[in-house]
Amino acid sequence: MKDRIYVNELPQHVGQKVTVAGWLHNLRDHKNFGFAMLRDKTGIEQVVLNAEQLEQLRALQLESVLKFTGTVVERKAKDPSVKAVEIQAETMEVLSPVTTVAPVEISKTDLDLNLDTLIDNRVVTLRHPKQRAIFRIQAALVHGYRSYMSKQGFTEIFFPILAGAASEGGSEFFKVDYYGREATLSQSAQLYKQITMGVYEGVYGLSYSFRAEKFGTSRHLTEFNQFEFEVGFVDGMDEVMDHAEAAIREMLTTVEKTCELELKLLSVTLPPVGKRFPRVTLKEALEAYKVEGGVDETHEPDLSPAAERWLSTTWGPKHHDCGFVFVTDYPATKRPFYVKLDPADPSNTLSFDLVGFGSEIISGGLRVNKYEEQIERLKAKGLNPDQFEDYLMMHKFGIPPEGGFGMGLQRLTQNVLGLANIKEATIFPRDVQRLRP
Question: What sign does the CA torsion over 272, 273, 274, 279 have?
Fold first, then answer.
């Protein structure tokens, strides 16, 4: 509609005749007149109805699609600092009548629903302002990531989801009948982004990943998205962490600038970012957790969820005014075959995690870039090099010293917003039980 004005633009049109369109979010009936609460993608505003218009809407249900033409006038607001307006309707057109009662009442301030009901009725529940806010913020995270990577001169890559073998080994992959041959749904874009190191030297993308998870817990999805990054000719792991930190900073800045209303609606306060994200080894992190946190996990080969939470919500803010902490130097037993071993200690890897929002959000490090070394790493992990022919080809024909990282989009969204279940941060989630809507 060329002449349509959005709800958030109405305060700039006081005294003017405008056309608005959207969904009937709520109807307030005062017998001889009423108010239609009209919702569009930018917000909700009230339209003053005459008796004839009110009578017409009484025959319809909420979520009917309406178009109004009328004059924008100021009205009293609870907050005097806010310029409140409404539309005095002159004409009304029903663009799409709804005559069936919605399965859930989305005109409430909060949706008091269990998770299955929320997702089963996604067609309607996504329209709730707080549900819509989740995925507006998610989109802003993606925009901020792409903005940072593009400004560095890196090239965006679009990765395939069908593969000829499990990209990271293991059994948690989906098999697909591909013209009589066995294929899998991709677990990771690792192979493809590393191949491009022989072309672009720096790439990024948003991949689809599939894992045949056997559990439907609050942490598990069978289909999810990953922020991918890979860069060549690196001098060391710090260079990769520098890019991870800068990307996170721009992503959060983008959310702050473009989603102020959504953050307020969801009561979200972003963590402090300090001057620089601190960087500690796994050994140092576990020692700090023992001395300051009072929990001895120094014998463990990884951070527990409790340790991640303490490190990013207590230790980081206290010592560095920062809710993000890089943890480096994980043992080889805990990292995939493509992660480079520490030349000074082959039981250690040149790898890192970034913990923030109380959880691990990024995993990355330097990669093996030499053919014979990669063969040995595959064998050490119990994998057959013959099944990684394409992956090994790039090592034969030269890739530079390089590194990268991956970051789950849905997990990041869940952590940023403090959601209890990762499925709440997934617009159409898939898990071991769910394949709809």
Answer: positive
Q: In whole angstroms, what is the distance from residue 369 CA to residue 189 CA? A: 17
Residues 216 and 334: beta-carbon distance below 8 Å: no
pTM score: 0.92
Token digits of residue 431: 């898990």
SS3 content of the chain, % helix, strand, coil (to 5): 35, 30, 40
Chain centre to alpha carbon of residue 385: 34
Indicate the number of domains in the chain.
Answer: 2
C-beta neighbour count of 239 within 10 angstroms:
14
Q: What is the pLDDT along the chain (437 residues), one digit of tens a residue?
A: 889 999 999 999 999 999 999 999 999 998 888 999 999 999 999 999 999 999 999 999 999 999 999 999 998 877 776 778 999 999 999 999 999 999 999 999 999 899 999 999 999 999 999 999 999 999 999 999 999 999 999 999 999 999 875 545 555 789 999 999 989 999 889 989 999 999 999 999 999 999 988 887 888 899 999 999 999 999 999 999 999 999 999 999 999 999 999 999 999 999 999 999 999 999 999 999 999 999 999 999 999 999 999 999 999 999 999 999 999 999 999 999 999 999 999 999 999 999 999 999 999 999 999 999 999 999 999 999 988 888 899 999 999 999 999 999 999 999 999 999 999 999 999 998 888 88
- From 341, 277, 348, 344, select the one nearest 312 (Cα to Cα): 277
Same-domain pairing of 62 and 180: no
Indicate whether 173 and 62 sit together in one domain: no
Q: Are residues 27 and 71 in the same domain?
A: yes
The answer as to whether 112 is a domain residue is: no
Residues 173 and 299 in one domain: yes
Question: How far is the C-alpha of 86 from the C-alpha of 329, rounded, in Å?
Answer: 59
375 in the same domain as 228? yes
Structural domain includes residue 43: yes
Q: Using the 8-state DSSP alphabet, how is residue 106 labeled? A: T
Asked whether residue 118 is assigned to any structural domain, the reply reads: no
Structural domain span for residue 203: 129-425
- Check which CATH number belongs to the domain holding 65 and give it: 2.40.50.140
Q: How many CB atoms lie within 10 A of CB 260?
A: 10
Whether 63 and 137 map to the same domain: the answer is no
Strand 175-178 and strand 155-156: the pairing is unpaired
Q: Round to the nearest angstrom and report the end-to-end CA distance of the chain.
A: 30
